[in-house]
Amino acid sequence: MKHQLIFVAAMMFSSTFAAEISLTDGRSFSNASIVSETPLTVVIKHTGGLTSVSKQQLPADLQRQHPINEAAAIDSEKKAAVAREAAIKVRQAEVEKSAKIRAQREADTASSVTAAKEDAAAQAARLALEKRRAQSALESYFLDKFSSSPGAERTVDVTIRDMRQSNGWPDRWVVTGSAVIRQYQPSSTPVNTTGMNAKQASRAEYRASKYAVETREFEADYTTGSSPPSLNVTMR
Q1: Phi, psi of 177 (to 5 degrees)
Q2: Nearest residue to 209 (alpha-carbon basis) of 229, 187, 235
Q3: pLDDT tens, position by position, 84-98
Q4: Which domain holds residue 145?
Q5: CA 146, CA 129: separation in Å to the nearest integer?
Q6: Residue 147, Cβ neighbours under 10 Å: how many?
Q7: CA 186 to CA 39: how far, in whole Å?
Q8: Does residue 5 fall inside a structural domain?
């Protein structure tokens, strides 16, 4: 009798946990058993693997063993909704953070470009100013260096071809260019212009005078750190 009861129990276990399960939608799973469940679904393990199905699709006997729990399903859905909302907020926060980082990076880049442009403009303005000062200093230098005879008139025109800062010396510049020295020496003997008109008289005085033009190539070290700026000129 004892052995018969054990056999019947084994048969019931086999039919409940390792039997063929036919669903209401027509699907059928052999050697199948329910391994887990949620308030609305079960997971069936069978020869083909694992399949999740709605409890409503189970046969009546299995629906009684695994009833639908509406209250638990509603609670589970609420928790899932809260989790989804939290995930959305986290994602939105990440997107906003990325947008702020990108905006800050773009602002920093724009600021760097603006600063570079302003720095370049400031350097160009300083170069133009120092170039004018260097030209004036060089013209004074050549006027003093090439002395003229008493009564002579002299002019100097300096052309700067290149001007650049010396490496490591922010107040020292290397200047290259040319100086055109023009000298006009009127005749010391009065010119007889009797009977000449103004134009003829001017030509006669010019022919009697001395006029010279000289061009000098130079390279100069121009230092603005001192007052007045210092100038060291080398003729080429």
Answers
A1: 175, -155
A2: 187
A3: 988 898 899 898 888
A4: 134-235
A5: 26
A6: 9
A7: 121
A8: no
